[in-house]
Design a protein that fits this description.
Elements (H helix, E strand, L loop, with lengths): L5 H11 L20 E5 L10 H12 E3 L14 E6 L7 H10 L4 E5 L4 H10 L4 E5 L16 E6 L1 H17 L9 E6 L4 H17 L4 E6 L6 H13 L4 E5 L5 H9 L3 E6 L9 E7 L1 H13 L6 E5 L6 E5 L6 H16 L10
Parallel strand pairs: 1-3, 1-4, 2-3, 4-5, 5-6, 6-12, 7-8, 7-9, 9-10, 10-11
Antiparallel strand pairs: 11-13
């Protein structure tokens, strides 16, 4: 019997192995690359707060190439992850929203806001193999104690340092009688009296008094992070008492402070993000780079460099700062801001983080 040519045998073998290799003589393409899935849960302020929820979403959209975040924001795809976001409408939504992503095996679940600390503590304990991160908090128990779960990264900020920068601006302007009312008085409106809010206010009041010891400071809380009308009412009251400059530290609710200042012809200061476009009264914004912290947490997970514990952001590592907005600040104001910035970075001064 005549044997088939060697070339025909080779062809048969190639056909037989075609299921296992990309082509005869070639190599297998291997398994598809893993797509990392990131789930972001906002607090009740929602994505449109123009503050820290929005910033966290920006950090996610920078990393994501797909996912529902891309229907809300332009995704840059720098880390090629899947990015999904769920907005919370009440505190009772936190645990279900976080659990939804954990149950579906997401690689990182991010909670936004101090008020989510206990929920992160609960859900991270139930899913020890899922990575969690939380903006402005840690995974805590019902008493606020850090549970120190190895799968939780707390992203904390030295808000008092950013507060000190805008407080310096306010203090010098009032010392110069530059404001409309000329009563050497400034105000601040916080959302809920929690550490991230009070850190800002403490730094703001302290710095204003450093450059202007006789200045009067007013402060109030709306107990709300989403309803602008609640903050506008407090702002109007402070303006009636002579406040020339109002610092909002209340997320979406605080937008009411900025617009009320505009209506009454005084100045305002934004928070977390650059808020110059909210109202023309905004002369500066205290910045908290939540977008950078969010992006870094995602990058750590993708690079297998995630480490539980606390990561801190301040002036020294460019985690906080300020932005001058709809007013050209006088030279003496800029000099004072540069001076306090240098002192904070060098450690020669420590900004208090508790409101007197």
């Amino acid at each position: 019997m005549r044997k088939p040519p060697v070339r025909l045998l080779s062809l048969g073998i190639c056909l037989l192995l075609a299921t296992f290799v990309a082509a005869c003589g070639g190599t297998s393409t291997g398994p598809a690359a893993k797509t990392f899935k990131i789930g972001l849960v906002t607090d009740t302020g929602g994505l449109n707060d123009k503050s820290f929820n929005h910033l966290a979403a920006l950090g996610l959209s920078k990393a994501a190439s797909t996912g529902n975040i891309c229907s809300s924001l332009t995704c840059k795809g720098e880390l090629a992850v899947q990015g999904d976001v769920t907005e919370s409408h009440a505190n009772s939504d936190y645990v279900p929203n976080l659990t939804n992503y954990a149950t579906r095996g997401y690689d990182l679940v991010i909670g936004v806001g101090f008020l989510m600390a206990e929920s992160i503590g609960t859900v991270s304990g139930n899913f020890p193999n899922i990575h969690f991160a939380i903006i402005d908090g840690v995974g805590a128990d019902a008493k606020g104690n850090d549970l120190k779960h190895a799968n939780v990264e707390g992203l904390l900020f030295k808000e008092q340092e950013a507060g000190a920068l805008v407080g310096t601006i306010a203090g010098v302007l009032e010392k110069n009688s530059a404001g409309a009312k000329k009563k050497n008085t400034i105000g601040s409106v916080g959302g809920i009296k929690i550490p991230p809010v009070d850190h800002y206010i403490a730094g703001y009041q302290w710095a204003a008094k450093q450059v202007n010891p006789s200045i009067k400071t007013l402060n109030g809380y709306s107990n709300n992070f989403s309803d602008p009308t609640k903050c506008a009412g407090i702002a109007a009251n402070q303006i009636s008492q002579g406040a020339d400059i109002l610092f909002q530290v209340a997320g979406g609710c605080g937008n009411g402070v900025l617009t009320q200042a505009g209506k009454d012809g005084v100045w305002s200061i934004g928070v977390d993000a650059d808020q110059k476009d909210v109202d023309k009264s905004v002369i500066a914004s205290a910045l908290k780079r939540v977008d950078v912290a969010t992006y870094d947490a995602i990058k750590d997970v993708k690079n297998n460099a995630f480490k539980g514990g606390i990561k801190s952001f301040g002036l020294a590592n460019d985690g906080v700062g300020y932005q001058a907005d709809n007013l050209t600040l006088p030279a003496d104001v800029m000099t004072a801001v540069q001076d306090i910035t240098s002192k904070i970075k060098s450690g020669s001064v420590t900004v208090p983080d508790v409101v007197p």
